[in-house]
Amino acid sequence: MSDMKKTVERLISEEVGIRSGVRELTKLHGDASYRTYYRATMSDGSSFVVMQMPEGLSSVSEEITNFRGTHDELPFINVARYLSGLGLPVPAIHHYSRADHLMILEDLGDEIMAGRVESAGEEARLEWYMRALDLLILMQERTRDRGPRSCVANARSFDARLLNWEFDHFREYCVESRLGREMEPADREAFERETRTISSAIEAMPYGFTHRDFQSRNLIIRDGSLYLIDFQDALTGPRVYDLVALTRDSYVKLADSTVERLIHAYAQRTGSDPQQIRREHDLVTIQRKLKDAGRFVYIDRVKKNPGFLKYIPASLGYVREALSRNPEHDALKAVIEKYIPDWR
């Protein structure tokens, strides 16, 4: 028996109370995280998901924030307890061993929403995305007006520094790292002027609890219901941020009509002006999807994982569509076209 298997078996036996022994420990497919996941299948037929975290800051968060305090516990545990306490569907945490860098989680199964909708027709997709929208609105309703002591997400936010850092992440990796040269000074000035203007507009939007990556790969289907995962980077952000993450998913391209129905449904159910929501949706799309494109190159260059490069065209396509509806930012569009010609 491997050392890892022995450790998992000991923790499940001593801390969870299941003493039947680990029959099999299977490594699960992961995305770009430093965390590694396993399924521990027990001899009695039960199973658990085991999250293994490396030492250091990467075990806390993959994303930067403006949090100024110190973490007394892992953000994943903090946010999970917060959401669970509000009756929101998240996996139960059975035990966390700081010494072993292992967390024993409830096993929700393997069916992510992305897999369910990948080959489905648009009507079936719309049904699942409407259910995801139900969960998003429920999450926003239940987390509204919560104080900063309730959750670490309420003590950090998308401020201008963070928004601009993510814009610059695109410039640094998707443009300069790929081309092997820096932007020309005039183009960099235009890029920064336009992106800082968008960041200011985003900062002026209504803010609330934000999952930060509310998309089809982070929604698990179990017994017909959706569960939230990968929420450790939650913060306070623009109300439409998670809506953008859902509808402008790099992994699942929705029909324009489906996106419009989801945006309209969100506006109607939240009592918002549809045109205002559409405007906010466009600006956040530009910010998030440029960041995503840069992140995919970063994952390739720094983490040596090229698997996300294929999603860059979809991400930049969303940016192009949003910019086409907002001609006041044509200068940004011109800069991107100059350095990424095939984007046109």
Characteristic key phrases:
344 residues, alpha+beta, 5-stranded antiparallel beta sheet, two-stranded antiparallel sheet, 11 helices, 9 strands, 13% strand
Q: CA-to-CA gap between the ends?
A: 55 Å
Strand order of the largest sheet: 1-2-3-5-4
**What gyration radius follows from the Cα positions, in whole Å?**
21 Å
What is the 3D form? globular
Strand content: 5-15%
How many helices?
11
**Largest sheet descriptor:** 5 strands, antiparallel
What average pLDDT do the residues reach?
92
Secondary structure layout:
Blueprint lengths: L2 H14 L5 E6 L8 E7 L4 E6 L22 H11 L7 E5 L4 E5 L6 H5 L4 H22 L16 H20 L5 H19 L3 E4 L8 E4 L2 E4 L6 E4 L2 H7 L8 H14 L4 H28 L10 H13 L5 H10 L5
Antiparallel strand pairs: 1-2, 2-3, 3-5, 4-5, 6-9, 7-8
